[in-house]
Amino acid sequence: GNSVTQMEGPVTLSEEAFLTINCTYTATGYPSLFWYVQYPGEGLQLLLKATKADDKGSNKGFEATYRKETTSFHLEKGSVQVSDSAVYFCALSEISGGGADGLTFGKGTHLIIQP
Amino acid sequence: DTEVTQTPKHLVMGMTNKKSLKCEQHMGHRAMYWYKQKAKKPPELMFVYSYEKLSINESVPSRFSPECPNSSLLNLHLHALQPEDSALYLCASSRRGMEDEQYFGPGTRLTVT
Known about the structure:
Chain A has strands at 3-6, 11-14, 19-21, 23-26, 32-38, 44-50, 56-59, 62-65, 75-77, 86-93, 95-96, 99-100, 104-105, 109-114. By secondary structure, chain A is an all-beta fold.
């Protein structure tokens, strides 16, 4: 079956530091890949997505590139802010012969940015 | 408008109560979802409605009963819950089905006493 692996953290960084959150996946076909962010006390927000190999998703200074050869979708940001403190979920969705499967989530990475 | 709304924001109920959670979207999406999220865990899929028909029930106990009155509304009826059902209940929608990105509501924080 499908799976997503990401570092759980917490990951603690200083403001303006460079961020990388690793995400690797296992899928049988050609999944779409997503990063969702969950701020304290809130629901999940779609941060960015990529639907095919070499696509780069970007939003709010965050970027992730769909790397089929390494089955990865690492999240990066050049300069983090305190307001980026949240839990980040990597997820995939795949269409198989039986139709679309639901979102498979990683366990989430808790990011803490200190001023 | 990419908003999914959920009411109530918080709910406390006893084990003998009956209550309902409500979810609404006006994006014209035809797939809607209920998820359960425990603290520090990813969301777990409970139900999927596709074109107002229940298409997936992920072995959820019958004390949870979903309802989709129309393409914009999704309800979750709760009855005889257990304390371990306390969690954040998230609603989501997507344009056609599970191949599309899902948009989540803010959730209902449920406490069962």
